[in-house]
Amino acid sequence: MPILSIYLGRSEVSFLIFNSPEDYKVYNYPYSLTEPDFIKELIKVVSKELKTPNLSKYDLLMCGFPEVPKIDTEPKLSITLDKVATGIKEFYPVFMSNFSILTASSFLSVAKLEYVDISMSDFFPNLSIYPYLLPSDSLEQFTLDNFIRFFPADLTAHNINVPMVFSGERFGFDFSGDPLSYMLIIDLVKSVGFYELRHDPQNIVANLSMVAKYDEKYSNLLADFKFLNLGYLVNAPGTVEGLLETESGTRQFFEVGSDKLFLIPLAEEHNRVVIKSSVLGNIEKTVSGGKLGLIIDTRPKSNPQIFNDDYVEKGLNVWTTSLREVISSL
Amino acid sequence: MYIPTVAKPKQKNDVLIERALPTVGNVTAKVGDNVEPFTRLGMSKISYEKTVLGEDFKPVKHKREGSYFYQEEKIGSIGFSKVLAPYNGYLVKEGKDYVFKQEERDYWLLSGAWGEVTGVVKDISVLIRTQNVDLSFVACTRQNIQGELIVFPNPTEILVKEYLENFSKNINGKIIYVGNYLSSEVVERAIDLKAAGLIAGGADRSTFTYAKENAIFIGLFVGFGHCQVPSNLFEVLKNVSNRFVFVQGGNKLLRIPVPEKFGSDVLKQSSSQGILREVKKGLNVLVLQKPYFGVKAEVDRVSGNSIFVRFPEKDEILEVKIPNVLSLE
Questions:
Q1: Domain boundary residue among A58, A81, A104?
Q2: Among residues A317, A309, A271, A318, which one has the least CA distance to residue A290?
């Protein structure tokens, strides 16, 4: 029996119509309502839009947070997002929405309002009424992102040895791959270390995980799924020296001073990178491709006294310009 | 593309409301009585006003705590200022302070709703089974209030205050629908006139906070900013002006009692349609995007994830990104 998995977020509803790992459809609906008949009606709309009749007869799986919404039909599997996140071992998931972050180890909703000048417009109070609203301009988006940008360092990752996958409603419907979004991802990883960054621009992680839990024959679904490779992040405040060696043997030395965000595009081949830093020591890794390539970040992100809204506002233009150039050069 | 509709008025049957006397009195209604809004349920005596005179107040000679004074009669002085009775009443002491209390008057408890009495708490309150039309606020303060609803006919912003002044002699304790936009000036004047609550399409956040700080109820149907009230809500409101209504701030509801056989085209329409509408040319929508947040428009065309809408009053076309728009139909 084909599967219909639904993840109901606070600002978006994500559908996965799953027949097999090779045959599936994703549909993100950019509104989320609490009315009891909303999901029932939406299933009919999705069925019509995707030309998939009898969707209501599929095996229904439901995910939500902090509760799974109740609908007329009893789902075959119903799990809250926090339990989905803790069950994922193949990578370290980070679910991001406008006001919260949920990871495999923690959850935090809006904590530090002082980082956000909510008096600047009626957009933010209206967002609390209509949580699905899109910001009208990049200033509103930046201010909105600041709700979660300064969450504590330990929240997003600490001593992990699997890739990090960034998912959630922040990237769902109509995601344009803008530099501000990638900037936010980089800013959220604060602990010192070397990280592999993956991105889920379809907001599909929760639904894939539901399918993998529901049917044992899809237990490798998460491990096999190809998320967008963003690149490799070296988080090391202070000066970083390094060597990048390509498969063909060309070598490039680099030195990045403190307080910098430096990006090196990587070819889709096995590149060897050697990093030397006072906080990381000497590390050697094999890296390959990625939308942003190798990201050397020497900003003091884990120090909230320095890494605050003023600091980010001053450097944002330079950092997003670097990101834009790497993205547009691909 | 399908978009959700704005929240519609809903009729709710078998709703229980409690009507209580402000002080212990005499409840005359009995279980099983059929009641209408002006049916008297009971009576008690209350003092409507009191004035705190403070510790430094000195009563006039030969008068003391418990003395009765007629309006305008000298009751004492504070320093060199003479104090006159603001109304007929008694001088009493509360702790160290002298307080002047208005003479108690009869308070008649009216039903305020059509229905049947299903319970009575002796000398205190009555429970009535009734039916309502519920209108949802998108944002409101949390008080539960009740009172007569006064509906202004959606006046332009400059005329709202004039409407308020024209009603000023009779606004104490009432709930006023002021129109599309509620300004801070109107809130200040309504506080002076002792209105119980203000309802509108939108208000600025600072106005909302000011109302909250001054304990006057404020309820918004659309959002923060200059917003327009959807026509179907105004259709309901204009037909129930001067009716006794109930506001449940915690549930964000304006509950309007209606007779058992209540027929309204707006309600029939909203109960027969679902939540989602296909976006087509001519669909009436509510824009939720700067610079026209909360303004009504009509769909001109759809292009990918954008909807181009026309504002009938402005002859202007604006590109609105989905999901910054809701259907009004």
A1: A81
A2: A271
